[in-house]
Amino acid sequence: MDNIELMNKEFKNFINRLEKSKDSFRTTATEKRHHAGYRTARENLEDLADPDSFLEFGEFAVAAQRSRRDYDELQAETSADGILTGFCTINAEQVDENRAHAIAIVYDYSVLAGTQGFFHHQKLDRITEQAEKFNLPIVIFTEGGGGRPGDVDVTTQIAGLHIPSFSTWARLSGHCLKIAVNNGYCFAGNAALFGCSDFRIATKSSWIGMAGPAMIEGGGLGVFDPKEIGPANVQEQNGVIDIVAEDEQEATLIAKKLLSYFQGPVKDYSHDDQAKLRDIIPEDRRWAYPVRNVIELLADTDSFLELRKNYGRSIITGFIRVEGQPIALLASDCQQLGGAIDSEAAEKAAEFLTICNAHSLPVVVLADTPGFMVGPDSEEQGAVRRMAKLFKVGASLQTPVVAVFLRKGYGLGAQALVGGSLHDPVYTVAWPTAEFGGMGLEGAVKLGFKKELEAEIDTDKREALYNELVAQAYERGKAIEAAAHLEIDAVIDPIDTRSAVTKAVNMALNKKS
Fold it and tell me: Domain map of the chain by residue range?
């Protein structure tokens, strides 16, 4: 056989081996996924990465089970050892290719239920080391059942607890952005990766738990169907899931949009008529209003992406763009607890700010809060410890913060929401509708004028005195008076909010760079 014939033979073998990793070869597995209403791992990868940008690692890996199974079978049934890893670009058309470089990791549930085997872990370790070396963001699809006990080829370890995968993954926090996407079952090691990610997206058809049915039963804790363990609706309510998506397609779209905020500005944007902001706050200061309407008007069109919508609901966390610049957002929701910051909301905001600070994303705060939630019930939730986290994180912020007070700014809660003090932000402004005080004005009057109110015997006169004192307190606490006493930097026309935010953020970012 001459060299050309030998080369042709080897090339054919190479092509045949490549084909075994494709969905077109793995027809039974592909049809099973589609029958369940799910996509294959490679379909998710194709939707995530820009066309022709994926540079794959370890495509020829198979499960470490050659001593118990036929090698050809392993090639066909355990392609890539159940995990696709590689370099790619994401959103290159939107943010330009230099800022679009990323890493994709996609678990393949059709291979041994997406379990983590010997070579599987080696692939995961290799790609996360590359992410750390080049400071690349990662999008990971985590569907799978955790550790795999059947890799019998491995004879040089007992429990495999010395593998670096989980410590390496955790170490990336604060350096490489990690966005996790889940659909289907996600248990044990897979759930650990999901939970250690910066942002967590899951479909409605997700069940996520630190142990799957087999481990629970093995621990003598009962027999459970996998769909009884960590369903998406439960994990959304307890803050494990940041965003719930309808299906894998929507989840992938959300992951790409979420990543884009950390990839930098975009040139093309539009926005709504800012004059609408002038009439959005009710004349009666006691009435609540939907602050998401304020956000949508203020932000570039279709740029608002909210996280943990149904957890810690008195503070909204998410991302917007203003004149194309990506910005992290905190906003008080006065329709929830009157905007009071409870323990869940404080922790939610603190965790969000920590991530944004690590990745130098500027923050805008839309504040309207009567302060921290108070009372015995609040204290039973560990308020002192959990609310204090917002002060700790605020004190360590290096990324610029711009504070915009829409209405109420009272007490410690208002201070914590904007970094610890009204002078901690780069620029602290208020709309004319804003009001300030060391505590709620009504409460301050009741406490500060208790003797005067009790001295008035007539009920109607006492009520009139109370209302007069509240009105006086409100006049003293108006935004213009706070600005006149230099507690805030300016009072602005709501129509100028976008301009104020842009100027302050651009100054801070340019000065810092």
Answer: 3-260, 274-434+478-512
Mean pLDDT, residues 391-413? 95
SS3 state at 400: coil
Q: Which of 188, 227, 234 has the alpha carbon at shortest distance from 207? A: 227
The pLDDT value recorded for residue 7 is 65
Q: Give which of 10, 126, 3, 102 is closest to 48, Cα–Cα.
A: 102
Please state whether beta strands 363-369 and 325-332 pair in parallel, antiparallel, or not at all (unpaired).
Answer: parallel
Q: How far is CA 450 from the centre of its chain?
A: 46
CA–CA distance, 406 with 316 (Å, rounded to integer): 14
Helices 41-48, 248-260: axis angle to 10 degrees equals: 30
The span from the CA of 498 to the CA of 277, in Å, is 11
Rounded Cα gap, residues 245 and 254, in angstroms = 8
More confident residue, 381 or 53: 53
Architecture of domain 3-260: Alpha-Beta Complex (3.90)
User: What residues form DSSP beta bridges with 369?
Assistant: 409
Q: What tokens were used for 54? A: 């994926």
Nearest to 328 by CA among 509, 106, 512, 95: 509
For 297-326, how does the pLDDT look when each residue is reduced to its tens digit (9 = 90+)?
999 999 999 999 999 999 999 999 999 999
Give burial (CB, 10 Å; 0-12/13-18/19+) of 193.
Answer: buried
335 Cβ neighbours under 8 A, 6+ residues apart: 288, 289, 290, 291
Looking at the predicted structure, is the pLDDT value of residue 504 above 90? Answer: yes
- Going by pLDDT thresholds of 50, 70 and 90, the confidence category of residue 155 is low
pLDDT averaged over every residue in the chain? 91
**Helix, strand or coil, per DSSP, at residue 455:** helix
Contacts from 475-482 at CB under 8 Å and sequence distance 24+? 477/435, 477/436, 477/437, 477/441, 478/434, 478/435, 479/405, 479/430, 479/431, 479/432, 479/433, 479/434, 479/435, 479/436, 480/432, 482/409, 482/430, 482/434, 482/436
Cα–Cα distance measured from residue 274 to residue 448, given in angstroms and rounded to the nearest whole number:
40
What number of other Cβ atoms are within 10 A of residue 3's Cβ? 7
C-beta of residue 26 within 8 angstroms of C-beta of residue 84: no
Q: What pLDDT does residue 344 have? A: 95
Residue 67 tokens read as: 């001593």
Share of the chain above pLDDT 70, in %: 96
Q: What is the CATH number of domain 274-434+478-512?
A: 3.90.226.10
CA dist., res. 223 & res. 53, Å (int)? 45
Whether this prediction's pTM lies above 0.85 is answered by: yes
DSSP 459-479: HHHHHHHHHHHHHHHHHHHBH
> Residue 193 and residue 187: Cα distance in Å, rounded?
10
